[in-house]
Specification:
Number of helices: 13
Distance between the termini: 46 Å
Number of strands: 7
CATH topology of the largest domain: Endonuclease, Chain A
Shape: globular
Length: 280
């Protein structure tokens, strides 16, 4: 089955919903009643204080085990468990992405090909804010701040999950475009080079001049769950598709494998990024 719905911000964070905000308020109230700071509570449930803040503010869909861990940490009142049931039933504008976010949070493999913009997991604050401030229809200051906080929290996956393999195939022109200006691009390249040094991250650049290209149908993401099941996610202008049909996922896997052979090696990609940085 291929599941689809519309509604995300630039780069894929889901919009909040009444059920997410209500669930977060319940968690926050119980945490404060227990006299715990976000950091203290996060230590009990295995999350960073930033992730706790995102859940409490309705910006992040909690993973399936969060409710049980929270119940154990906050007195087993049943309130969090009952509130979590409504999350599963909430149709929501970005329900499809909330499902993807749940899968992403526990994935053991995450592959990304992007031809439109630098993926959210690799963006700097300056680059992300450039995207938010130029978005149409325009966002309010509050929406921009919420979007960035959600993205910054999501980026913690790269370091919080050192056993997850992250791989990115990025088009060369994403850096050549100089979105946000020269200074923003310098900082962006420096940041991507820093991320490329992580042992669990592999970054490859697809050169602009390439006679054959297996990704011309657009961006894609692929992930593998701890149960070794694969899912895919493809995003467009106003929505996206969560793909669970093994046959469809297999097609996208073959395309991604082909693109990895067509792109520069990780070592040559780093060299190209360093040269582009030197040209700025």
């Amino acid at each position: 089955m291929v599941d689809g719905a519309v509604g995300t911000g630039t780069g894929g964070e889901p919009e909040s919903s009444d059920s997410l905000r209500t669930f977060g308020a319940v968690v926050q109230a119980l945490r404060e009643h227990a006299g715990l700071s976000r950091e203290e509570f996060g230590n009990l449930v295995g999350l960073s204080k930033h992730t706790v803040a995102s859940i409490e503010q309705g910006r992040r869909m909690p993973d399936p085990k969060f409710a049980e861990r929270t119940e154990a940490a906050l007195g087993n009142t049943g309130a969090v468990r009952n509130a979590a049931k409504h999350l599963a039933r909430q149709p929501g504008l970005a329900a499809w992405f909330r499902r993807w976010a749940l899968l992403e949070a526990t994935a053991i493999t995450l592959y990304t090909y992007e031809c439109r913009l630098i993926p959210g997991l690799l963006q700097t604050e300056a680059y992300a804010r450039t995207l938010f401030t130029t978005q149409l229809p325009p966002l309010s200051d509050e929406q921009i701040e919420a979007q960035w906080l959600a993205r910054a929290e999501r980026q913690e996956l790269l370091r919080e999950r050192p056993n997850t393999a992250f791989a990115f195939v990025l088009e060369e022109h994403l850096f050549r475009r100089r979105t946000g200006g020269v200074e923003v691009t310098r900082e962006l390249i420096d940041h991507v080079l820093e991320i490329a040094e992580l042992r669990n991250v592999e970054i490859q650049i697809m050169p602009t001049v390439r006679e054959t290209h297996s990704g011309l149908d657009g961006p894609m993401q692929l992930l593998e769950t701890p149960e070794n099941k694969w899912f895919a996610y493809c995003e467009g202008q106003r929505g996206g598709l969560l793909v669970s049909d093994p046959k469809e996922v297999s097609v996208l896997q073959r395309r991604y494998v082909s693109m990895r052979s067509q792109a520069l090696t990780p070592e040559d990609s780093v060299s190209l990024l360093q040269r582009m940085r030197g040209e700025l």
